[in-house]
Description:
This protein is mainly beta. It has strands spanning 2-18, 21-33, 42-53, 56-59, 67-78, 91-92, 97-108, 115-129, 134-136.
Amino acid sequence: MQKFYEIHDSLLESLDQEGERVSIRLRAVLTETENANAPAPNHFRQEIRLVLDGAQLTIDSPNLPSWLLEGAFRCETSDAEKTDGGAEETIPASLRSAKSVELVLAGLHEGSGDFVTISVKANSLALEQLGEPQSLQHTRASI
């Protein structure tokens, strides 16, 4: 079974920067599927934190998006299980650490309607699960 976090449909809870450390808290969509062609994957919502060290952060707006519509995750190496991973650029659910990371989060700021892109390049990433997955009936993408 593949398990991965989708960037689209996730909610950005907070983004903090302290020196070269960036901490991003998400209410992420966790997808579990038997294989890429499975007709009805299971969707969950799970609180996670991504901590990026040696990070360079770029945001193209003074506002932060709340609802993420798209994005990408890439790394040179990680400790994720080889079976995890969905569509290209999703975050494997078994990931705990990765090296040479590029992360892009993009979405809407609800107040202004601005489309905002956040880009982070970092030496390393640590993923922390902050709670248990909560079942979802569907996501915007599955409708």
